[in-house]
Specification:
This protein has one domain. The chain is built from 11 helices and 5 strands; from the N terminus they run ββββαααααααααααβ. A hairpin with a 2-residue loop joins strand 2 and strand 3. Helix 8 packs across helix 9.
């Protein structure tokens, strides 16, 4: 942790790394012409805005909303920075088609397994367990197949660089390249662990949801995702506070295993980008000039 007890997290984006703190989020991007760019946007997470969003279980849903909102916005902006804002503006029709496909895929993942197991003449508990297993298999296969593409390989390398950089700062308060290189590409607080928990808790709770028609199946599965995100967040918070306990290690270990797929060893250039994003976020979040040298000779992106 930092000297003023700020916790940092992040994710890989197009051509770089997103780093978040409770005060805002930062991007470090290497564009297609090998130039370095940085961006920072102040933003207080929902879970810190009022008592409602910070209350137990509700905060899990708030964290999910924050993650999706900031993640999507960061990926969209990173793509523009990477292409140097030279790509043509996406048309309204194209956006509608893209969002429609995304919603269809999400609905297929959420309700599809249940509709598939409806063809199996098993009791409710049996079909619930099979549905949960189907979801887990779909996630693992999807991540594995996506990871075989060239673009995803680069994304996974930036993912590893993000973990290494955060670990170095949390442990040593250092963003020196040689120190960052000492840390593993896997991190116990990775969102992959959250994904694993969602799959696991879905497996444990789906047997208790009754078999319904196609419309109600879709509705109940959407509500189930919200409920599972709430429970998963509380389990993660317990893990972070009790990282040395046996229970925490049981829940954390499979997430580390999955990161063997979702992270790759980064290059020196990719670590440089992750360090830039981290330094930029620390500078604004902690109001410090400790890392001004890292920010020199990089271009600050301003929107609006």
């Amino acid at each position: 942790m930092s000297d003023i007890n700020i916790s940092y997290g992040g994710q890989a984006v197009i051509g770089g790394v997103l780093i978040q703190s409770p005060k805002g989020w930062s991007l470090g991007i290497r564009d297609k012409d090998d130039n370095l760019h940085r961006y920072y946007e102040p933003r207080i997470p929902l879970v810190q805005r009022n008592k409602f969003w910070s209350s137990p279980f509700i905060r899990g849903f708030g964290a999910l909303i924050d993650s999706m909102y900031v993640g999507f916005k960061a990926i969209t902006l990173s793509e523009k920075i990477y292409s140097k804002f030279e790509d043509e503006e996406e048309s309204l029709l194209s956006k509608v088609v893209t969002y429609s496909v995304l919603i269809a895929v999400l609905l297929l993942f959420i309700a599809g397994p249940r509709l598939l197991v409806e063809m199996i003449n098993y009791p409710q508990i049996g079909t619930g367990l099979i549905e949960g297993l189907f979801r887990g298999v779909i996630v693992i296969i999807y991540v594995y197949l996506i990871g075989r593409t060239k673009d995803a390989q680069e994304l996974f390398e930036y993912h590893g660089a993000e973990h290494m950089t955060i670990a170095s700062y949390e442990d040593l308060q250092s963003l020196e390249f040689d120190n960052v290189m000492k840390y593993p590409k896997e991190h116990v607080r990775c969102g992959t662990s959250f994904l694993f928990l969602i799959v696991l808790i879905s497996l444990l709770t789906l047997p208790f949801i009754p078999n319904l028609d196609i419309v109600m199946t879709t509705v109940t599965r959407l509500l189930h995702v919200v409920l599972v995100s709430m429970i998963s967040y509380e389990v993660l918070k317990f893990n972070f506070k009790n990282s040395d306990s046996i229970i925490a290690k049981i829940f954390a270990t499979p997430g580390i295993w999955v990161q063997k797929i979702t992270t790759k060893n980064p290059s020196k250039e990719q670590i440089e980008v992750a360090i830039l994003s981290m330094a930029n976020c620390i500078t604004h979040s902690e109001n410090t000039d400790r890392f001004d040298k890292i920010l020199q000779n990089t271009s600050e992106v301003k929107i609006g």
